[in-house]
Design a protein that fits this description.
By secondary structure, the protein is mainly beta. Helices cover 14% and strands 35% of the residues. The strands form four sheets. It has a seven-stranded antiparallel beta sheet, with no helix packed on it. It has a seven-stranded antiparallel beta sheet with strand order 9-17-16-10-15-14-13, with helices on both faces. It has a three-stranded mixed beta sheet with strand order 1-11-12, with no helix packed on it. It starts with a strand and ends with a helix.
């Protein structure tokens, strides 16, 4: 059985929202915030969203108190293409610059970053939906083929040589696979049934943590969470960007199907030799019995331990 996956529309969504755009700002319901009705430039810079805008300089001593936004206040950005919603706690001011003293400009420039944004109001996520998380993994290519039992699959009707791992965690099915486009690599996790955003984030992170335990790498910096009407995942309804906490790499790998990764004693190590008895290479024929894929069922049990017990 070949599983069909669709990513074209989702990748296009990421590409569009990553472009530099100008938005009009509204901070909550207040009418007096200095950001209100100002033009804000939002753009993607590597693995974070950055913004810049100018505000009027207040009379008297300028302590920038007017820039503060309450943590749970919703900041809305709007232009003729879309609306974007941001919690105040995710708007981080990093730099403030003032005009030269000999100019008549009475505005200062605010620059910063946004750690999480959504294309839908936060009430949208109160309903259970099918979710997908996509995690960029930069130059670190992750392949599940050969390391885990799984299924063949197609992406946008094209066959791929990768493996899709089906994970049933607490009776809920998830699909875990990798994909690449234009030399960019991604981890993808799909929820195959409707659930809350909070539950999906918990289960998706359990998959990432179990993978990190087995392979030594936790891929958890930037992520995009999409919602869909159905589990065919063809057309995204919403997108939320988030920071998972930071990647951790080059840890100890508990499992490997590569015989060259095994730590062997000298008695177990065998070498290839020429006619004169000189060592010319490493003989790994006796190690091929260790090249066993890790069962998806065992992978899922690790995820359940993380979700239900908080760890192994």
């Amino acid at each position: 059985m070949i599983i069909e996956k669709y990513l074209k529309e989702t990748y296009g969504f990421i590409s569009e929202i990553s472009k530099s755009e100008i938005y009009e700002v509204q901070v909550g319901k207040t009418k007096s915030h200095s950001f209100n009705n100002r033009n804000l430039t939002l753009e993607k810079n590597e693995d974070e969203f950055c913004f810049s805008l100018s505000t009027l300089i207040k009379k008297g001593i300028d302590r920038n108190e007017e820039l503060k936004i309450n943590k749970e206040t919703t900041v809305k950005l709007t232009n003729n293409k879309r609306s974007i919603y941001i919690k105040g706690k995710y708007v981080l001011v990093r730099h403030i610059s003032y005009p030269d003293l000999d100019t008549n400009i009475l505005e200062k420039t605010i620059k910063g970053q946004i750690n999480s944004l959504s294309t839908e109001n936060f009430n949208f996520y109160k309903k259970q939906r099918c979710y997908r998380i996509i995690i960029p993994i930069e130059d670190l290519r992750v392949r599940l083929t050969g390391d885990f039992t799984g299924w063949g699959f197609k992406v946008d009707s094209k066959f791929t040589s990768e493996t899709l791992v089906k994970l049933v965690i607490n009776k809920k099915e998830y699909h875990f696979f990798t994909n690449s486009i234009n030399k960019k690599y991604f981890i993808v996790i799909d929820s195959m049934e409707d659930q809350s955003l909070e539950d999906f984030q918990k289960y998706a992170n359990s998959i990432l943590l179990a993978f990190a335990f087995l392979k030594g790498n936790y891929h958890g910096k930037e992520a995009f969470i999409f919602s869909y009407k159905s589990n065919d995942f063809k057309e995204p309804k919403s997108m939320m960007s988030t920071i998972l906490g930071g990647g951790i790499y080059n840890g100890f790998s508990v499992h490997s199907s590569s015989p060259h990764s095994l730590m062997l004693s000298k008695k177990e190590t065998k070498y290839k030799k020429d006619k004169e008895g000189n060592i010319i290479g490493f003989d790994d024929r006796n190690l091929r019995k260790f090249m066993v894929e890790f069962p998806a069922e065992s992978f899922a049990k690790l995820c359940e331990l993380i979700c239900n017990k908080g760890g192994f």
